Amino acid sequence: MKIPSTVFIYTIVYSYYLVASALEADFYKLLDVQRDADNREIRKAFKRLALKVHPDKNPDDPDAHEKFLRLNRAYEVLKDEDLRKKYDEFGEEGLKDDFKGGKYESWKFYQQNFGIYDDDQEIITLSRSDFEQAVANTRDIWFINFYSAHCGHCHELAPTWREVAAQLEGVVRIGAVNCEDDWMLCRQQGIRSYPSLLLYPKAEKFQGSRTVESLVKAALRELKVRSHALTTSNMDATVRSFGEKPWLISYCTDHGEDCLNPTDCLKLAAILEGLVSVGHVDCAKESRLCGELNIDVSQIVFHNGPPRTADARVLIDSLNPAEIATHVLHQLPENTLLDAQSFENARAELKAGKCLPWLMHFTNGETTQIELRKLPAMLSGHVNVGKVDCRSTPQACSYLHIHKYPTFVIFKPGGGYEIHHGRASAHDVAAFAKDCSHTSVRVLTPDDFPEPVQLREQLWFVDFFAPWCPPCMRLLPEFRKASKLINIGTEVNFGTVDCTIFNSLCDQMGVRSYPTTLFYNNSVAHKFQGNHDASSIIEFAKDVLDPPVIALTGSEFETRVSGKSSKELWFVDYYTPWCPPCMQMMPEWRKFAKALKGKPDVYVASLDCQAYGATCREQGVGSYPSVRLYAAGRAGTAQQAEFSSWFRNAQNFLTWAQDYLPSKVITLNNQNFAQSVLASKKPWVIDFYANWCGPCQQFAPEFEKVAEALDGKVQVGRIDCAQHNICQKAYIQGYPTIRFYKGSNGQSLQEMFGVNIRYTGRAADTINDINIKLADYYIRSRDEL
């Protein structure tokens, strides 16, 4: 049957529309996930779609490849916390400099190899967003498997790793890191091959046999607990040393049945550390003791107090350590329940600084995880632990905007508080409580705006975040660390705003992506741009208070740059606030400015082309960021050069600027090397380099520091080996090579070869090695005299 032409055209148009829609769809819609999806949800959604729409499964679809490229791009961006932040803030426009994409795996790979441990509850999948707080900032014992989905040995190990996790449940923490998804975390941890098994907190690599038995033994060797062998002679003294603490004891008769073996006793001691003392009695050898305790068959007994007291005994009918621990925890009291008045009293005491911080566990009558009864022991001496039922104290929960349960809140001396947004396990909650109980960070609400946050006399760092955002969760521990380490001569306050709760406030403050961190100085908000670590946060605050970059206005550009003298050298960054690459470059531009600080007549500036568009148009600026220098030697802007490298970082800026900066390094050639260096009575340090050599270019600014530091002690020079054959005569085999020439005796030229200086790429190391050579030279000179 002949198809009407109109139907045919409609079919083509409709098919094109579907393809175009798939290619243009928002990444979250493309993967069919919410904007607050975590990495595991994103990975599962991608796997589901990958198995359905992969080109291998749709050979008749001519657009299958393009569709899957788009799907894969969405996944690659959203799984990476830094790319995801840029996408949330700037859309795909913000990814142009950072992400290329274009590759994907076969359908079989997504079916069999993708996300090895995503469905294993006993194995904790870690990422950069939680590694710092859960692992690096604790003394917890972790056994972590760093793996790659492409690694055959990793897949072979998976069943063994699951069995290890089952055997060590509650004893040590078993983790996994997918190095395909978190390559930066793996690189930071020194991972070079897969699978790599590391034991923390020492970060020691496991080198033994990868059997369940060997792996479990390796983990147990890290434990600092013990199961006590109780006898007639040591029972009373051992029990007294642990006060009134309950005891869990395995009694073994001569038949040896229904006993815990030593390994299981050790596991129980680890699971119940700080809560219950664990012991074992061999009744075949200690019949008198077992008779006194009325034990005539093998049994496991929980004594709610010292074993010889009349406290109730509970017999436990299990030989599984995890089950026994659960029975024991059920015998222990729940965390202290506070009513409305007790809660207010505790907060009043905290505000007056009269008590330790309080960790409050907010519930709504739901069954509490039994392991949370460990919290008082884990936080003993550091933090009080309490429980609040929101059904009986609705006002407190409403004030704190608590809408999900369980929620954990740390209340601090002085009145501030913070809310836990991580896993609700005892270890994670305890780590959170210890980390932030003595920091100045506190939750902010709309009541805190515009004052005190925007008060002119105060400095405030405010982090606007969302709990579902991985970069936010990674930043929070660093934000707290910065609050403890910052020392800039004046008090800086730190606060956080949860934009999922106070959405209208975040909109009002111009927050469009998470995290957005603003530093308020005299009520003026400065948006933090930089790495998500404490040192970068502190450095940013210092830069705001003492700006290394001159922020020009249109009129200031005319007077200071267009009207500059011939002695001055100006570097200017032309930018707009809406330009993603401009914002990403700003921290590097500040580093560049600080590297040039103190150089006479050298200035580093920026000009906002959104605010001063007329000036930018007059200068012919057509794209952003545009980086230009206005060289010394001529007045005004007549002599200029533009930065053209794709990589806009401080090191590349310094390399580019080197030829225009005033220098103490003397440029040498074939003609003057012998007379200037070999015949000189003064010591020389020479940098033999090649203009095409990347490390040489990177070292050039460092060598300038060497020249400045050694000014007056030695002469400093450099020679381009790509242009001068003197390097062959000096037997230079690699670039850069740094040589020390001690000076001629005045009667003959020095040796051509000189003495090698250790090269590490750092000025400080080079200077140190040169000073050693100088000291040796001066000592020998005195000896000769």
Sheet bearing the most strands, described?
Answer: 5 strands, mixed
**What is the fold named in CATH at topology level of the largest domain?**
Glutaredoxin
CATH architectural grouping of the largest domain: 3-Layer(aba) Sandwich
Shape: globular
Beta-strand residue fraction? 15-25%
Strand order of the biggest β-sheet? 1-3-2-4-5
Mean pLDDT: 85
CATH class of the largest domain: Alpha Beta
How many discrete domains? 7
What is this structure's SSE topology?
Layout: H1 5-24, H2 27-31, H3 39-53, H4 64-79, H5 81-90, H6 107-112, E1 124-125, H7 128-136, E2 142-147, H8 152-167, E3 173-178, H9 183-188, E4 196-200, E5 204-205, H10 212-220, E6 228-229, H11 235-240, E7 247-252, H12 262-271, E8 277-282, H13 287-292, E9 299-303, E10 313-315, H14 321-331, E11 336-337, H15 340-351, E12 358-363, H16 375-378, E13 384-389, H17 394-399, E14 407-411, E15 417-419, H18 426-436, E16 442-443, E17 459-465, H19 470-485, E18 492-498, H20 503-508, E19 516-521, E20 524-527, H21 534-545, E21 550-552, H22 554-562, E22 569-575, H23 580-595, E23 602-608, H24 613-618, E24 626-630, E25 640-642, H25 650-657, E26 666-667, H26 670-678, E27 684-689, H27 694-709, E28 715-720, H28 726-729, E29 737-741, E30 755-757, H29 763-784
Parallel strand pairs: 1-3, 2-3, 6-8, 7-8, 11-13, 12-13, 16-18, 17-18, 21-23, 22-23, 26-28, 27-28
Antiparallel strand pairs: 2-4, 4-5, 7-9, 9-10, 12-14, 14-15, 17-19, 19-20, 22-24, 24-25, 27-29, 29-30
